[in-house]
Amino acid sequence: MRFRNLLNLVGAVIGASGVAMFSAAAVSLLYREWQVAGEIALAGAVTVAVGAVVWRAFGTPTELSTREGFAAVGLAWSLMCLFGALPYLLTGSLPDVADAIFESAAGFTTTGSSVIGEPGALSHGILFWRSLTQWVGGMGIIVLSVAILPLLGMGAVQLVRAESPGPTPDRLTPRFADTAKRLWVVYVGLTVLETVLLWIGDMTLFEAINHSFTTMSTGGFSTNAGSLGAYSAYAQWVVIAFMVLAGTSFALHYKALTVGLRSYLKSVELRVYLTLLGLAAAAMLFGTWGQGAHDTIRDAIFTSATLITTTGYGTHDFALWGPALQIMVVGLMFLGGMAGSTSGGMKTYRLDVLTQASRMDVRRLIQPRGIFVTRVGKDPVPDSIVEAVQTFFLLYMFAFMTGTFGFAIVTRLAGTELGIVEMVSAVATALGNVGPALDTLGPTETFASVPAVGKLMLSGLMVIGRLEILPILILFSPHLWKR
Questions:
Q1: Are 44 and 18 in contact (CB under 8 A)?
Q2: What mean pLDDT comes out for the span 229-234?
Q3: Contact 314, 443 (CB under 8 A)
């Protein structure tokens, strides 16, 4: 491990986070929130200064090794969430440190859980900062850095591999930096398009920008306490469409734009993803039918999309549904969208690989002498990929079980009694980067009632889930830190 490499890159990412804070200060200035603008700018100046000192102190990095890439990603995201809490603390929006860290982590990891009961009471600058953290975290600030900071050089390959959501980052060009730029062009383009469509409806321009940021990042922060339920049916249908697009591979979007729409038709993973969305919506429609066909249909489609894509918006309080549907809600928190999308969860590709590998194992039991190959569609899946997916699944379930057990212990020691439904759904929603949980932590509630130590633990689980376990797990390996 070359610590100069590691700290240089971490400093660059921290500095980039600070620069982003100045845009939130500019929004406050636009709305004549003079004091808030100064406080956010101070947070940005402190963050940029710390990042610049760390960056400059350790010189220009050389090519990154794999373990340095993973370590840089794990440390950068963890520190980013800490520094991202400064605007909340310095403006007094969230004076409690645990609350500020929780909100920052929920932002950058695009989880959407919140301790803020009435977002409308916040200043425009802080509301914009909440949404911006999700938009930047959606595609990944490491990928952003790869796209705009040539100082990362060839090490960018290791960073993208460590940070990119999904099992395999698609490479659209020979250079990863060019790939990152193309993905960001698609990301920005879809964000602008959604903003225009929402602005045409019943949202102000400010609301449209914020909701576009948190839709395309599958984050779920809203400027309204009622989330999308406070807006028209038109706005909800627009958000449904863009949630589905955000849960689709951005590399696939780029190919469709450059090669042709047939790229969508050829994608097996897209068909699986859309099938899961359809089945979930049908099950919710069947379970909630009776409150008026149109609203029920829209609510069912919206809820299935917001859960599977891990966006976390709400139009209906699914915490009030029956036990069977609530079990399904928790199950959907584990799924996620396509590999290469901004959604969290385990990803459709992995689920498909696990399903096909299980089918092959059953066939081997029936026909011991047969030769069977795991395939996704017609494409064979190498054994190394199957093993990697199986390992990830085991680690994910281990993180879920130990996280639930640990969360139960720390909340009990803190003197807070939470029910089993609340604890299980809180850990599932944090690890899957979804947002709302069930019961008293449901879509119409906040996480303010969770004790400070519980909020910090859930914040850690959000980062673990966003980085898909390995970059954080590797940080605790003694082999990583050996020279």
A1: yes
A2: 92
A3: yes
